[in-house]
Amino acid sequence: MAENTAKANKGVFAATVTSNRQIGRRFYRLGFDLKGAATEAFANYKAGQFVQMDLSGAALPAAEGIAEEFRDAASKKTILRRPFSFADFTVKPGKTSGEILYCVVGASTVRMTTLRSGDTVSIVGPLGNGFWVPEGKKLAILVSGGIGTGPLIHLAKVLTSNHSGIEPIAFAGAKTKEDLPFEGKLDRIAQDLGFSLGEYARYGIRSQVATDDGSVGFAGLVADCMAEWIKQNNPNPRETIIYSCGPTAMLARIAKTAAERNIDCQLSTEEMMACGIGVCQGCAVACKGANPNETIYKLCCKDGPVFEGKDLVFNA
């Protein structure tokens, strides 16, 4: 990962909440500002990197505001920080602002829903290695599954702002229509032109949607939707790169397609992690070693979360 060696001095910083809006049944976007030393530390933040957020001080919603499926989990104490990547990130002199896309899945994220403008949250970052852009690329294929959408929306912004010679196209997948973590709605004309998702359309990026149950868009897995598009359009492998974030099974299918087509591929892995800085060794990712059939283990939080697809080992 020599192309991705730019590092900032990570630290513990106070983030001030600016917004916390619900965009779906379980999806929210949390906005906040960073000032002072944090602005300098995050000046070179890359899409795909992450922060560890302390939510132990966040309040629980009223009992009637907690979905029944999360009531038992919500009663547990939140001790460890939780990792989140940015869906949007803007650096300006003296102030840095960002938005995190999150899904309510347990005790910590239930508490996140109570954060309001003006609240302060402790974060550690910037952490890990994000996406990078190799030379000679003209087409970037962005593929997300569920909540893995966040860092790819941020990457879309980076590509259109800083890499005018690259044309991105996005594919977003979920189990059902209700599980797609997007808020923008477009008119029928925009959708007919290929701009299915507002978050990508704002950057002039065409997008396609896939749902496992066929409730909207391509009926089936998003990895298959992407593979079908590649088969039909036959892009030049040397000028193409795939970026993806989502469930491991999805990443495995995308890595397989990339290998078959000889297309470069960067995958953002998802693993349970505690410290986020490589101390606990709890987020091991299986990678190919120097010798055939050799497997070595790297850390999602420190060596990743973004890896080249050809370096990863996926269980059959």
Sum up the structure in keywords.
single chain, 316 residues, alpha/beta, Elongation Factor Tu (Ef-tu), domain 3, Rossmann fold, Dihydroorotate dehydrogenase B (pyrk subunit), domain 3, 7-stranded antiparallel sheet, 7-stranded mixed sheet, 16 strands, 32% strand, globular
CATH architecture of the largest domain: Beta Barrel
Strand content bin: 25-35%
Q: In total, how many beta strands? A: 16
Structural class: alpha/beta
Tell me the CATH superfamily of the largest domain: Translation factors
Strand order of the largest sheet: 4-3-7-1-2-6-5
Distance between the termini: 25 Å
| Main sheet characteristics | 7 strands, antiparallel
User: Helix and strand succession?
Assistant: EEHEHEEEHEEHEHHEEHEHEEEE
Number of discrete helical segments = 8
How confident overall, as mean pLDDT? 89
Gyration radius, in Å: 19 Å
Instruction: Report the oligomer.
Output: single chain
Measured as a percent range, the helix fraction is 10-25%
CATH classification, class level of the largest domain: Mainly Beta
CATH fold type of the largest domain: Elongation Factor Tu (Ef-tu), domain 3
What is the total domain count?
3
Compact summary:
With 316 residues, this protein is an alpha/beta fold. It has helices at residues 37-41, 71-74, 107-112, 149-162, 188-192, 198-201, 222-233, 248-261, and strands at residues 11-22, 27-35, 50-54, 82-84, 86-92, 95-103, 120-127, 139-145, 167-174, 206-211, 218-219, 240-245, 264-268, 284-288, 295-299, 306-308. A seven-stranded antiparallel beta sheet has the order 4-3-7-1-2-6-5.
